[in-house]
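Progress note, project year one: complex with adenosine monophosphate.
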Amino acid sequence: MVIIMLGAPGTGKGTVAGILQEKLGIKQVSTGDIFRKAIKEKTPLGNEVAGYMEKGLLVPDEVVIKVVDERLNQPDLENGVILDGFPRTKEQAIKLEKMLAKNNKKVDMAINLITPEEEIIERISNRRVCTNQECKAVFNVTMNPPKQDGICDKCGSALIQRKDDTKETIKNRLKAYYETSEPIVEFYKEKNVLYSSEVSTKINKLAEDVAKEVVEIIKK
Ligand code: AMP
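Model obtained:
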């Protein structure tokens, strides 16, 4: 099964994908995480993408597509994948169709999360993420703070603020989303695989609630 996560930064894509990974036994692959790891390890890919990420700009299509193509061909994804952060452009969406078709696969479900912009900005600027890649827990210093400052409740690793979670960078990331990524929602709607849901404290609906709904739909 192939699931993709759509939605602006800070809507809870990573949280939903993490829960689905656990409940459905399909691996979550986040292009943002792949790039952050490459930057940390100072690999040629990391050097290539660092500048874009720091400014909150999209990494060029050809770079992202190559990374995803290689990752999709690894044996641990044979049974399926939850793509978190890819595709983000029409070009990437079209290439993904082709990459999957080579293995007789297709996107089975595109989960689109919608959150009011002021809530996104609040969430991202107060977001703290676990540095342990196996855990990846997310906290919010005002809404959902860790019990001990800077320490992950789940695994005890250090929490950090992502370098691109600053007010200035968030503006660029939202602009990239509205201009380039949002139009691909229509692409999946036309393919009849779109599942859209609002995630907002205003309606008391969290990413966890969406994940639960999706699991119920898939297991039916
Ligand atoms: P994320 O962790 O999904 O918020 O991604 C963080 C950053 O990684 C983005 O702001 C982009 O700079 C880059 N990135 C991740 N996925 C993609 C993608 N599919 N296309 C272009 N850039 C991406």
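The chain has nine helices and eight strands.
Residues 2-116+169-212 form a domain with the Rossmann fold fold (CATH 3.40.50.300).
No further modelling is planned for this target in the current period.
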